[in-house]
C-alpha cells in the first residue's frame, strides 16, 4: 500500500510538471487568426444586408467583397501556420531532468530507506519485540565481544595498593568492606568484569540485608560489563533491586532502557517520563532521558508530550536512591581487610591523590569534588582541603545545587 500511494503521488506530480512542457505553443488559447476570420465573415454578411436594404449599390458591394476576401485568405494562411507550431523550446531537456529526479529519488530510498520492510500490524510488532527480547545474548557472550574501556595508566603506588587490596580480599573473602572497595576500584581501573564479580559476591554475602542501592549498583556493573546490553543476568539484578525498593530511580531507569533495547518504546516512555518529572535535575539518569524523551514520545504514540523544564532547585545527586559515587570513601578504606595501619594510610593517600589528579586534569562532578574535600582532612591535609574548597566554589559559582553539596562536605570536614 505504501508503494502504491508513493507511486500515485509521484505520477500525479510528474504529469502536472510535464503537461506544460509537452504542450505546443499557443495550445489551449484561440489564435488571433481564428478571431479575424469570424470578424471577416460577419463583415461579408453585413455587406449583403446593406445591398438588400439599398444602402450601397452592386459595384460597391463587389468591391467590398473582394477586399474582405483578401483578408480572409490572409487570416486562413496565418491560422494554418499557427496549427503547425512546435513544442516549447527546451521541453524535452526539462523532461529528461524530471526523469532523472524521479529515478534518483527511487535509488536514494533504496539506499537509506527500508523498501523491504512490510507494513506490520501492532500484534506483529509486539511479537518481533518479544523475539528480540528472547534472542538476547548471554552475559558471557556479551562480555566476550565487548571491548574493554581504555583508561589512563594508574599511578604506580596506587596500582601497588590495589594489588594489595586484591590479596587482602582473596585472604578474607567474607569481608564486605574489602569487597565494596574492590568493586569500586576495579571499576575505576576499567576492569568491569572484575568489579561486577566483586559486587556480586558482596550482594551474596549480605543476603537479605543487601540494599536496593547495592543491587542497583550490581545491575549497573553487569550492564556495563556487557557493553550496555541488558542481558538476563542484568535484568535479574534490576528486578531484585526493584523488589527491595520499587521506587529506586536507577533501577527504574534500567527497566526503561531494557524496554527500549527490545523494541517497546510504549513501555519505556511512561517510566522515563516519570523519572524526568520527579528529578532531581542533577541525577545522572536525567540528562540521557532528557536527550531522548522527545523521540521516545513520538515512537510511543505521544507526539503531544512536552517534557518539563529543567529545575534549578533540584536536590543534589547524592540523595537517597542515587548510585554510588566514584572516589575514596575514608570510612570504608579504613576497614580494608587485613591491611596494616600503614598500608591503609598509604592506600587512602593514593586514592585521594588519584582523585585529585583526575579532577585537576579532566574535571568532574560536584559529588566528586565534595568527596575530595571530605577525604583530604582524613589524611591530615586540612589546609589543602580548604584550598580545594575555594577552587570548587569558583568552579561551580552560580550552580546552587552543586554549591549546597560542596558546602555540606566542607561542614562535614570542619572547614569554614
Query: Helical proportion?
Result: 55-70%
- Backbone CA Rg: 41 Å
SSE series:
HHHHHHHHHHHHHHHHHHH
Q: Let me know the average pLDDT.
A: 78
Cα separation of the termini:
72 Å
The major β-sheet equals: none
Count of individual helical segments = 19
Described by the principal axes of the CA atoms, the overall outline is elongated
Uncertain residue segments: 313-337
How many strand elements? 0
Beta-strand level of the residues, as a percent range?
under 5%
Structural class estimated from helices and strands: mainly alpha
Secondary structure layout plus pairing:
Blueprint: H1 2-22, H2 32-52, H3 58-83, H4 91-112, H5 122-134, H6 139-144, H7 156-171, H8 176-188, H9 192-206, H10 212-225, H11 232-244, H12 249-261, H13 265-278, H14 286-299, H15 330-334, H16 341-362, H17 366-375, H18 382-395, H19 400-412
Helix pairs in contact: 1-4, 2-3, 7-8, 7-16, 8-9, 9-10, 10-11, 11-12, 12-13, 13-14, 16-17, 17-18, 17-19, 18-19
